[in-house]
Amino acid sequence: MTQPVIRVVGLGKSYETAAGLFPALRGVDLEIRPGEYIAIMGPSGSGKSTFMNLLGCLDTPSTGDYFLAGENVGQMDKDALAILRNRTLGFVFQGFNLLPRMSLQDNVALPLVYAGTDKEARRSAAREMLDKVGLGQYAESLPSRISGGQQQRVAIARALVNKPQLILADEPTGNLDSHTSEEIMRLFGELNAEGITIVLVTHEPDIAAHCKRQVKFLDGEIVSDHLTGAAA
Amino acid sequence: MLKAMLGEAWLAMGANRLRTALTMLGMVIGVGAVVIMIAIGQGAQYAVQQTISTMGSNLYIVLSGSFTTAGVRSGSAGGPTLNVADAEAIAELDGVANVAPTHQGSRQLVYGSQNWSTSVVGTTPPYLEARAWNIVNGASFGDSDVRSSTRVALIGKTVAQNLFGDEDPVGKTMRIQQNPFTVIGVLGSKGQNLDGRDQDDTVIIPLSTAQRKVFGTPFLGSVRMIMVQADSAESMPKVEAGIESLLRQRHRLREGSPNDFFLRNLSAAAESEAETTRTMSILLGAIASISLLVGGIGIMNIMLVSVTERTREIGIRMAIGARQKDILTQFLLEAVMISFAGCLLGLVLGLAIALGINAFTGMVVVISGSAALVAFAVAAMVGIFFGWYPARKAAQLDPIEALRYQ
Ligand SMILES: Nc1ncnc2c1ncn2[C@@H]1O[C@H](COP(=O)(O)OP(=O)(O)OP(=O)(O)O)[C@@H](O)[C@H]1O
Ligand SMILES: [Mg+2]
What we know:
Chain A is α/β, with parallel strands linked by helices.
C-alpha cells in the first residue's frame, strides 16, 4: 500500500462565537490515497469548508492531527505551512480569487514568484498551464475580461502551476451554470487521470457523480464514505 | 523575486494614482524643504566664510575713545586719543605682524564729468597686507609716499567702474576735495563685508596725505583707528594684552581709570557671526525635517488604508504560498518606492527652487551632493520606518481571516 497523501485523525475545529465555543468539526478521521478523486458533500453548515480549510493549511485545527504527505502539519511553523500551500497543494475557491490588477498569465505565475522561480521559467510554465486549461490566447488579459467559467479555469491553472500532488477545491462550480460546471469537471477528470489527487466540495449530485468517492458530512462528522460508479 | 515584487509594487502604486500622488506630495514637500533649507543654510555659511576670508585673519582694531582733560570727559568727537607713535610702538610688540594707523571718512570723488561718493581710507602700506588685499592693476604706494604725502590713490573695483567706466584708471587723475590724486592701482575685488557693505567701494591713500589734504585734521599725527594683525591665531590673546598695557602706559592712565581706547577683535566677531549662521542653518534644516516627518506619517497612513483594503488580496497570496516575509517585503517595497519617488521629485523641485532663489534674489545657495545623498538616505529610512508597521500588520494577518474579509 502506498502512503496516504492525506491522513487526518480525530480532527476537530471549534469557533468562538458570542454563544460560546461552537464545534464545527467533531473528530473527523479520513485517509486519502494518491490518485483519489473525492467529492465532499453535506448540507450547509455541516463543516465542509471548515474541513477543506484545515486540509489546505489555511487554518489550524483545535484538536486532532493532520498528516500531509506523511508529515505532521500541526508541528510546522508558518513559513513551512506557506511552503506546503505553495508546492504540495493547490487550492481552488468558489469565488475564483484571482488578483484583479494582474494579467491572467501573471496570476497563474504568482505561486512561482513565491517559489523563487526565475522570470523566464515562470513565463513558460504559466503559458503552459493556461494552454492546458484552454486559455492561452487570453494570457495578457485581465480577469475582468473573461467569463466566470474561464476565471475558474485560470484559478485551476494557478493551482496547478507548481505541480502539486493535490488539488483542494471548495465548491469550484458553486458560482457557475451547469454547462460551465461540466467543463470544469471535465478538466478535473483529466487532471485526475494524470494522477493528481483531487478533493472537492459540492452540493450537487451531478457534480459529485464525476468523482470516484463520496464523503458525506453532517454536523461536523462524516456520516457516509463510499465509492461511486465512476470509480470503476 | 525582488524584481517581480518591484513590478508589483509599481502596479499597486499605479492602481490608485491620485492617492499615490498625494502621498508622494508629502514626501516631495518634505524633501524639497530640506533641500532648499540646506542649500540656503550652507549658502549663508559659505557667504560668511567668504566674507571672513576677504576681511583678513587675526585682526584687531584699536579705536580712539574718550579722553579726559581736566576732569571733563569728551567723546571721540573731542579729538582722537591715538597717534601714529602709538601705532609704531604696537608694531614693536611680540606676535604683531602688521600695524596700520588709519583715518577714514566719506568724500566725493570727481573725474571729468563723473562724480562718486565713497569711503576714503588714509593709511600705511601694512594695511593692505593685514587685509590680504592685492592690486590687480598698477601698483601700491610705499612708505616714502606716506612720508612725503604724495597724492596717489588706490581705488576699489566699484569706484573704478563708476568713475572711470571702461577706461583704464591707472595713471588718470581724479579729484578728492579739490586735490588732484593720481590713481596708481586698482584693488582686487572683495565683495560685501559682514554688515553687507561693499568693500570695493573705497579709495585708499597715504595716511599723511589724507590727514593734510582730505580730512584736514587739526591734530596732526593723531589717528582715529589703528588696525593690528597678529601673526597667528595663537598669539592673539598675547597681542591683545600687550596692546592694552602698552597703550595704558603710553597714555599714562592711572590704575583704576578707564581705557581711552577700544580694542575690538574683528576675527572673534566674524567667528561669532559664522557660529550664528551655522546655528541658523541647523535650525532651518531641523524645521524642514519636520515636514519630512509629516510626509512619512502620510505614507504610514496610506499604507495602513491600503493593507486594510487589500486584506483579501493578502489572503489570496498567502493561500498560494506567500510567506510572511514575502508580504512584508511587498508592502515595505511599496512604501519605500513611494518614499523614493517622492524624494526624487522633491530633490528636483528643491534644487529648482534653490536655483530660482539664487537667480532672483542673488542669495548665495550651495548645492552639495552630500545633501542629496542625505535626503535619499532619509527617504529610504522614512519609507522603511513608516512602512514597517503597516507591512508587519499585513504579514501577520491570518490566511483564513484575510480570505474571509469582505
Ligand atoms: N469563522 C467562523 N466563526 C464562527 N463560526 C463559524 C465560522 N466559520 C464557520 N462557522 C460555523 O461553522 C459551521 C460550519 O461552517 P462551514 O463553513 O464549514 O460549513 P459548510 O459545510 O461549508 O457550509 P456551506 O455548504 O454553506 O458552505 C457553520 O455552522 C458556521 O456557522
Ligand atoms: Mg462551505
